[in-house]
Amino acid sequence: MKGNKRKKHKAAADIETAKAVGSQSKERLKGKDYDKELARLHVELVKLQQWVVHKGIKVCIVFEGRDGAGKGGTIKAITERVSPRVFRVVALPSPTEREKSQMYSQRYLPYLPAAGEVVIFDRSWYNRAGVERVMGFCTDEQARRFLEVTPAFEKIMIEAGIVLLKYWLEVSMDEQTRRLTARIDDGRKIWKLSPMDLKSYSRWYDYSRARDEMFEATDTSWGPWYVAISNDKRRARLNIITHLLSKIPYEEVARDKVKLPKRQKPGSYREPDYPFKYVPEKF
C-alpha cells in the first residue's frame, strides 16, 4: 500500500516537474514554423487514413485533460485535412435519464471503431474518473468500481483488434487561468466557458487527486496513458500528432496518378434565363 502511495506521489511530482520545465525551457513556437510542420504532418495523416481504410484497421484515440488544456484544438489539428467518414470525432453531451440507467460503458460501445475507422473521443468513459467523480455526479463506490474494471474493458477492446491510444493533456494552473479568462470577453470562445467549467475551475486539487488515482489504476501495459504538456498549444499538437503516427505502423498506399478527364462539350445546352437569388457580394 505504501509503495502504491509513493508511486502515485512520484507520478504527480513528475507531471508538475514536466509542466514547469516545459513552460520555461522553450519559447512558444512561431506561427510560420507551426504551419509548416503541421502541413507536413497532415500529409502523413492522410497516408495513415488511406492505410487504415486499406487494411481495415480500427483505431480509438482518447483525449482527456482539464478544461482549457487544449483537447479541442488538438483534435481539430488532427482532423482538419482528413475525411470525417474515416476520422470520426465523438463528443457526447450529458447522459439522458435512460443512459443513466444503463451499464456505464454501454453508452460508449456503439461509438467504438469498426474496420477502416479512426474514432477520436473528446472526453470519454473517463468522465467517470474525472468530472463525474469531482462534481458529485457519481458515488465514490461507482468511481472506485470504474477504476477497477476499466483495464479489463480496455483489454477486451485491444483483443478485438482496436488500437487504443490514451492522451492526457496537462496544462499549468497559470496557463489554464489565462485561457479561461480569455474566453470571457471573446465572442468566438464564450461557448467554451460553461457553468460546469467555472465550478470545476475552483477544484484544481480535487481534479489532481482524481487524475493521480486514474493513472495509478488504468495506466496499464496494454492501455498506457501518454501525457502531453500543453502550455504551448502549438508544440503540444505537433508532439501528439507525431507520437500517434509513430504508434500506428502504416505505409503509403500505392495509387494511380490522378489526371483530370476532358470535359464534355456543351452540345445543345444553353445557360437558363432564370432569376437566381444570389448571395450578396459584400466582400
Gross geometry: globular
Secondary-structure element pattern, one letter each = HHEHEHEHHEHHHEH
How many domain units? 1
CATH architecture: 3-Layer(aba) Sandwich
Reported for the largest beta sheet, the result is:
5 strands, parallel
General description of the model:
This protein is of the alpha/beta class. The chain has one domain (2-247): Rossmann fold (3-Layer(aba) Sandwich). It has 10 helices and 5 strands, in the order ααβαβαβααβαααβα. A 5-stranded parallel β-sheet has the order 2-3-1-4-5, with helices on both faces. Helix 6 (140-159) packs across helix 9. It is globular and about 75 Å long. The N and C termini lie far apart (67 Å).
Question: Which descriptors apply to this entry?
Answer:
Rossmann fold, five-stranded parallel β-sheet, 5 strands
In short:
This protein has helices spanning 2-24, 31-55, 71-79, 97-100, 131-134, 140-159, 173-184, 195-201, 204-218, 233-247; strands spanning 58-65, 87-90, 117-122, 162-170, 225-229.
What are the SSEs and their pairings?
Layout: H1 2-24, H2 31-55, E1 58-65, H3 71-79, E2 87-90, H4 97-100, E3 117-122, H5 131-134, H6 140-159, E4 162-170, H7 173-184, H8 195-201, H9 204-218, E5 225-229, H10 233-247
Helix pairs in contact: 1-9, 2-10, 3-10, 6-9
